[in-house]
Amino acid sequence: MVIKESSRLHPVAPLLIPHESIEDCEVDGFHIPKGSRILINVWTIGRDPDIWVEPEKFKPEKFQENNIDLRGRHFELLPFGSGRRSCPGLHLGLTAVHLVLAQLIRCFDWELPNGMTPKDIDMTKKFCLVTTRVQHLMLIPKYRLHI
Ligand code: HEM
């Protein structure tokens, strides 16, 4: 649920990768001519108040009462895209994220430096093909597995 919520609010590729329509088609009443460049704005979809309750808030419990997953079957959450050109590295990527996150939580306690509180963290992003934060996240790890 934490990884789904992070992917909703902070998708790695906010506009996915540009796609091109291979034939004329109509989507939701809009005519899309063959050869159009299509950008899917998953950043905006992830913050759409018609879809999400309290869209700006990080609340993993949003996924407690539903079966929305992030493998491209639920169009409200598409961090890996969907369909034939979706991410072929989905399983590897998700496994790596689960593994690294689990290790970071299990092996360390984390503190913010210089008396900062979570509210002081600047989440401003640099929008590009792949999104990064403007300010690097600074944390102090304290190793807690003393074997
Ligand atoms: C958490 C990790 C990852 C995320 C969030 C991610 C996300 C994405 C997204 C959003 C796309 C574009 C899909 C679209 O436009 O519909 C994509 C495409 C792609 N990804 Fe990933 N990816 C991840 C990991 C990986 C890994 C581990 C690999 C390879 C080992 C990989 C290889 C690719 C390739 C080759 C494409 C282009 C597919 C195509 O154009 O047909 N990705 N990825």
From TrEMBL:
Q: Which domain of life is it from?
A: Eukaryota
As for family, the record states:
Belongs to the cytochrome P450 family.
Source organism (scientific name)? Solanum pennellii
Keywords for this entry?
Heme, Iron, Membrane, Metal-binding, Monooxygenase, Oxidoreductase
Record's protein name = Cytochrome P450 CYP736A12-like
* Record-linked Pfam families: p450
Q: Which residues cross the membrane?
A: none
Which cofactor does the UniProt annotation name? heme
Q: Which InterPro entries match?
A: Cyt_P450, Cyt_P450_CS, Cyt_P450_E_grp-I, Cyt_P450_sf
Enumerate the subcellular locations listed in this protein's record, separating them with semicolons: Membrane
